[in-house]
Structures are given as C-alpha cells and as structure tokens.
Amino acid sequence: MIAVEHLVKQYGRFTAVDDISLDVPPGEIHGFLGPNGAGKTTTLRMIAGLLKPTSGRVVVDGHNVALEPEQAKSSLGFIPDRPFIYEKLTAGEFLRFHGGLYGLDGDGVMDRVHEMLDLFELRRVEHELVESFSHGMKQRLVMCAAFLHRPRAVAVDEPMVGLDPRGARLIKDVFRRMSERGVAILMSTHTLEVAQEMCHRLSIILKGKIIAQGTVDEIRQMAGGADDHLTSVFLRLTGGTALQELEEAV
Amino acid sequence: MKGAFTYLLLPAIWSSRNRAARRQPGDLTRAFLFGAMGIGVFAALFYAAAWVTWQLNSYEELGDYLLRLGLSWIFMTFLAFLTFSGIVTGLSTFFLSDDLRLLLTAPIASRRLFYARFAKTVAQSSWMVVVFIAPVLLGVGVVRCAPVSFYVTSALTILPFAIIPVAVGTASTLLLVNVFPARRARDLLMLMSFLFVGSVVILLRMLRPEQLMRAESLPDLTGFFSSLQSPLTPLLPSFWAGELVFASLKGGWDLMHAGAIWSTALACCVGLRVADERWHFSGYSRSQEAPKARFAHFRGVDVIARRLPLSPVRKQLFIKDVKIFLRDVTQWSQLLLLLAMVLIYLYNFRVLDLGRIPYMSGFVKNVYALLNLGMAGFVLATVAVRFVFPMVSAEGRAFWLVRKSPLEMRDFLWSKFWIGLIPVLLLAETLTVAANELLDIDPFLKSVAAVAILFLSFALVGLATGLGARYPRFTADNPSDVSGSYGGVAFMVIAVLLVIAIIALVGWPSTTYLYYQLRHRPIPGVRLASMGACFVGAILLTVATWLHGMRSGIRALDAMSN
Predict the structure, then answer these.
(1) Which of A14, A84, A102 sits opposite B101 (nearest CB)?
(2) Residues of chain B in Cβ contact (below 8 Å) with chain A
(3) DSSP state of B522
(4) Which of A103, B206, B302, B390 could form a disulfide with B482 if both were Cys (CB 3.0 to 4.6 A apart)?
C-alpha cells in the first residue's frame, strides 16, 4: 500500500535519506525507528508529498506521488510531528473544512465528523476554538482529520508525543482497529515499547540508511540477542555509547 | 463549492467571523481608534484631491492635462509599490505560510491552490492601495461632477491594475525561491524593500515639491510632471489605468486601454499559473530545507558586554537581545527606513526658509524649536512602540527559560529598559540637537529641548517596557503584530498625551522667557516661580510615568510567575 523505492534526499552535499526502500502492505503497522536526525521525518514528508525527493519514488495505493499526486494523497492520511491547525476555527469547522479538501460532501460529512469526534473523545469540544485546546487534544484532532476520509494508508510521525496514558491507549486502539480493517500504517516513533507492542514489522534507520528491517524477533536475532528488550537491541544497532557518555557527564 | 478555489479561502473567512464573535478585551477600543484614524486619513485624502482638482479647474485645458498626468503619476507610484508588495506577500502566501503544510498534503489540484493563493496575495498586497486611491478618485469625481460610469470604471480598473504588478512580483518570488532558499530570500527581499522605500522617500524629498506650491512656479509644475514621463510610460499599466479613468471622467469610454489592461491582467494570471504549476513544488520543497545558515557571530557585542559594569545575568541578557536583533534582518532593516526619515526630517530644517519672514524670524524660529521637540517626541513614541514595546513579547515561547531561572523579574525588565533606552535616547537627542543647531535657535531653548527630550526618553521607554510586560503577546509571529495590539495602542494614546502635556509645560515658560529676553526686560518674580513650577511639573510627570510604567510591568511579570 505504501511503497518506497530507492528514495534519496540530499541537502547540498548532505544526504539526509540515502537510498532507502520499504514496503507496507495493507493491514500492517510498520514501525519506523531511528535516533534523532536519522532521516525519519524527511522520509515521511516525502511520502506525504511535502518534500521533493532527489531521486527514487514513492507509491501510495498504486499511485506515484510525483506523477499522480492527487490520487496518491486521496488514499493517504498524514499525521505530521508538528501539525498545522487553524487556531481560530472550532474543532467541528476544522474537520468540516478538512473533509471538503478530500471531496467529502453532503449531509454525510457531519455524521462522519461526529463519528470521528466520538471516536477520539472530542465531541464535547466540537464548538470550541482550537486555540483553547491542550497539546493532547490538538494531537487527537489531527488524528480525527487524518482518518476522516477513510484513507487506505496512513503515515504518522511520532503519534504518542505529549499524550497522557489514556490518550496513548486510545490511539493504540484506533491504530489496531484501522489495521484490522486493512489500513496500512507507517509509524515513526521513539517509544520503543509502543513499537514492540504494536508493530508487525520494523525498519531501523541510521544516518539516512535502513540498517535493519523485519519483525521484532528478526531484528533481535540480527543484533545477536534473541531474548533482549527492544531498547537494548536498538541501542546496540544504532550505537549506544551516547548513553554511557551521558551517565559519566551526570 | 468544494471544488472551487474559493473553498480554500474559507478558513480565513471563518476565522475572521470567529474572531469578531469572540472579542477580546480592548478589541473595541482598538477598532474605534483605528477606525477613527482611517476615517481621518480618508477625509484628508478626499479633501486634498478635491482641492487640487478644484484649483486645476481654473486652468481649463492645462488643468485637464495636468489632471490626466497626475492620475497617471498616482497609478505609476502605486505600480512600483504593488510590485514590491507582491514580491514580499507572494513569498509568504506561496512558500512560508504555515497552512501550506496542511493544504499540500491534501489532494488539491495545483491550479486550484494557485488561484486561492494568488487571490490572497492580490488582496493582501493591494488593500492599502485601494484605501488610498478610493478617496482620491472620489474627490476628483465629486468636484468634476463625474457620471456614475466614472466610479464603475474606476472600480473595474483598480482590479486588473492590482493584478498585473502583483503577478510580476509573485513571478519574481517564484524565480528567487528556486534559486535561493526561501528564508534567505525573505531576508534579502525585506532588505531590498526597505532600501527601495527609503530611496524613493529620499528621492521624492530631494525633488523639493514645496517649490511647486508657489504661484510663480506653475510652468515648473508642468515640467515636473513631464519629467516623470518617458517613451516607456505608455507601455505601463499605470498609463492605461490613468487614461481609462480620465476618459470616464469626461463621460467617454477608452476601450483600447480597457482592453490592454484587462487582457494583460488575464495573460499575467495564466502565465503565472503555468509557471507556478511547473516550479511551485520545487520552490516549496527548497523552502522546507534548512541547510546550515551562515550568520554573523558579532563577537564585538561580547567584547562590549564584558566591559560594561553589569552583573553576569544582565550581561547575558544584553548579549542575547542584541545578537537576536542584529541577526534578524526583518528587524534591523526597518532602521534603514527610519534613518531615511531622520535624514528627511533634518533636511527639512535645513531648507526651511525662515528668512523670508524678516520681522518674525527670531520668534518663529524659536517656536519651531518647540515644534521640533513635539516631532521628536512623536518619533520617539513610534520607535518605542515598534522596537521597545515588543521586547518582552519577543522572548516568545522561550520565556519559560527566564521564568524558570533564579533571575528576578525586576532585573529582567530593567535590563530590557536599559537596552531599549540607549539607542532611543541617542536617536532622540541627535534629532533634537541637530535640528535646533540647523535652526540656530536661542541657547536657552536648545538646553531646554535637550533636557526635555532626555526626560521624555526615560518616560516613554519606561512606559513602553512596562506596558509591553503588562500586555505581552508571546505567541505573536511578528513584532509589528505586538505593536498593533491593545497594549500597543494604549501606549500610543498615553504617549501622545504625554508629549502634548510636556510641550505645554515646557512651551509656556520657554516662550515667556523669550518674550522678556527679546524686550530686554527682567522676568517678574511670580512669573519666574510659575515658570519654575512648570519645569518641575514636567520633570515630575516624566519621572512618574517612567517609574509607574516600570513598576506596573514588574508587578505584571511577578503575577505571571506566581
């Protein structure tokens, strides 16, 4: 459903994403892990059509993002790490407008908006301005918008940041339910517990290159510690010396 | 509706509606003040246009010729303004606007997004032109008893006239962004804009338009306007617009220029759309890239700070504020405009021909010194509201850093005060002293003006710092938004009242002194005491404003921390 083929992004001489390929079939939750600055957000922004790749291609639901951007974007829901929401609109107005961008029309739009607001527990603030929302509420509103048009694939950047345990649990449940309905989800995260708990497969990116790909068990074996916790495996693969240095500094 | 480009303008309309429905404290006052100022400007422009047209009526054919040239000249001035405005606004609406992050991930046809963004760019770039040109045309129309078709033609001319230069400006932006990163291009454009405006203002002043006000210089007037014409002029949309409006003023139709202006506007739209479809995404993509910026280290600031007798905390605050200001081109480039204004201000005093009033020159010159003090006070208030008032808000989302530190809010705000005071005081004193020197006024008045502006500087900077802390806008993206907020408007109102009060308190004793001095008579004791009381009153008023402003700011910051 989401296919990334030999994707490269260069900023001048610096290569942020270096020839990466990955494939997320329908119904799969694919974890995209890596340390800060590894190239996760850049990759997701290229998938969403916000950045132009230097080379390579992205295909969403059979449509090349560069050649058929409208068809590809119709099938995709994108949840960025720093989402933009019109602060002076109410939650209901924002979702109605967002639905219109994806061609949702008629009486059914408001039913769908209410369905989403109920799902993400935001119905009581439907008529309140977004500027009065907490970070977690805004995050949930962006998820409402991303799932509003029933996308077939979702790219999501750090979904759990700033959410309380209840919010995090809610998001996990929604993602699982969507995946059971055949939605492909590519999720970048730093929360390794979340990745371990939710993802069917993982890709680990370091300095723009994918250094490991597979199920959690396969990645454990690659790192040579079959029974280790994912955190230890991750640190071993991405170079965990920074932790030691931190300990010494403290 | 959902397929039309106008659908993409809905958030702006809904947001405005919501903002109007949920008024914040001070919104009404601000609307009233700005509304009154707007009506005042509109009335002044209407009156000026009507007066000039009325005067030109006496010259029959020559008057018609001058009116025709004048209209073309007004449109030409706006043409240059709109082109620059289109460049700067296009950069923001097409490349830097935050909502693009949302809109570009949605399945919207690039053509639809282009039309929505272009409509927004034209509206944002040209509203000020419409506000200025409407009363002018109205004034001309009323005096000439123009038919209704004149007003309809004027409205139908302004739209394509605005579209053409804004399209050219936006096309330049499209090109620039594909060559430079957008954020660097923004800095470059801001600098260019301010240099452009500053040069135009200085150039216009150097033409000495006051000479044209003399009755004997009517032949010069035709020469003045003719000098603005060139073989290229008939090819410019400003000429077409002027001809079109003038023809309708005479009750006729100028279909050739109507066709020229409308077809060019449409061609510009289509051409720009094609270019946008080809290059917008690559330009936007570049604008998202954040390569390591080259920046100046300003090590001199560290050296200066080390030598200042300040506590380590104040030294660091000083270094931070100065470096942030100097590294933000959008901030300091406005100083270029200010410098141009100051040069013109001083130049005006240089060319002031008071010798033409032989018997009054001595007295008038000294009254000018008070006028100069008033003008310097208003310049001071404007600079303070633009640069000093937003200083606390400029901490923005990083204000937590100050709040969580052991730094007392008192120290923080006083540091802001001193950083604001020194440049403002230098500017105000230079203006006052230099202008008084050029006027060659009485030494007593020179000293009074220099001391008065010193106290005014303390009062206005203290008030701006204090009110800026009391009404901060930490989430504002632009310092000019902070200046236009409720607190900023309140500051301007108080500042203007204070300047008027100080002029009155200083003016009466100074002119009384001059009155007795010119007549070589001693000042009576009672009068001397009243004069002293006025000077003391002025000192007390400025000191009270300064300290009260600061105290109220410190209290507000303390309350925020608690």
Answers:
(1) A84
(2) 2-3, 7, 10-11, 14-16, 18-19, 22, 98-99, 101-109, 281-282, 284-285, 288-291
(3) P
(4) B390
Nearest chain A residue to B2, by CA: A100
Structure tokens at B291: 């390569």
Give helix then strand counts, H and E, for chain A.
10, 10
pLDDT of residue B210: 55
Q: In total, how many domains does chain B have?
A: 2
Task: Give CA–CA dist B18/B12, Å, rounded.
Answer: 10
Question: Is B15 within 8 Å of A88 when comparing Cβ atoms?
Answer: yes
Distance between B216 CA and the closest CA of chain A, angstroms: 59
Q: Specify the CATH number for A2-249; select among 3.90.480.20, 3.40.50.1100, 3.40.50.300, 3.40.1050.10.
A: 3.40.50.300
pTM for this entry? 0.73
Q: How far apart are CA A203 and CA A209, in angstroms?
A: 10
Torsion angle defined by CA atoms of residues B206, B210, B214 and B218, in that order, rounded to the nearest 10 degrees: 60
A248 exposed, middle or buried (CB, 10 Å; 0-12, 13-18, 19+)?
A: exposed
CB contact under 8 A, A48 and B281: no
pLDDT at res. A250: 46
A73·B102 Cβ contact <8 A: no
Is residue B88 domain-resident? yes
Measure the CA–CA gap between A227 and A231, rounded to whole angstroms: 12
Domain around B182: 5-12+41-207+235-287
What residues of chain A lie within 8 A of the CB of B14, using their CB? 86, 88-89, 93, 97
Q: What is the pLDDT of residues A113-163, one digit of tens each?
A: 999 999 998 999 999 999 889 888 998 999 999 999 999 999 999 888 878
Give chain B's length.
Answer: 562
Q: Is position B213 within any domain?
A: no
To the nearest whole Å, the CA of B119 is away from the closest chain A CA by 18
How far, in Å, CA of B339 to CA of B199, rounded? 11
Residues 5-34 of chain A whose Cβ lies under 8 A from any Cβ of chain B: 11-12, 14
DSSP A196: H
Q: What is the pLDDT of residue A21?
A: 94
Domain boundaries, chain A: 2-249
Check B285 against A74: CB less than 8 A apart.
no
**Are the CB atoms for B448 and B510 separated by under 8 Å?**
yes
Domain for residue B27, yes or no?
no
Q: Report how far apart, in Å, the C-alpha atoms of B355 and of each of B213, B350, B363, B364, B439 are.
A: 18, 12, 12, 10, 11
Smallest Cβ–Cβ distance between A74 and the set B102, B107, B289 belongs to B107
- Among the listed residues A24, A71, A31, A9, the one whose alpha carbon sits nearest the alpha carbon of residue A183: A24
Whether B253 and B384 map to the same domain: the answer is no
Contact B250/B145 with Cβ under 8 angstroms?
Answer: no
Q: ipTM score of the complex? A: 0.87
Q: Spell out a b/e string for A144-160, using b for 16 or more CB atoms within 10 Å of the CB, else e.
A: bbbbbbebbbbbbbbbb
Q: Which residues of chain A have pLDDT under 70?
A: 223-230, 239-250
Starting at the edge strand that comes first in sequence, how are the strands of the sheet with A63-64 ordered?
A: A14-24, A2-11, A55-60, A63-64
Angle at A135 between CA A16 and CA B99, to 5 degrees: 60
Residue ranges in chain B whose pLDDT is less than 70? 1-3, 24-26, 181-232, 289-296, 329-337, 341, 348-366, 477-480, 562
Contacts of B145 by beta carbon, 8 Å cutoff, 6+ apart: none
Cβ of residue A89 closer than 8 Å to a chain B Cβ = yes
Q: Is residue B373 part of a domain?
A: yes
| Cα(A220)–Cα(A195) distance, integer angstroms | 13
Cβ separation of B107 and A88 shorter than 8 Å? no
State whether B325 and B257 are in the same domain: no
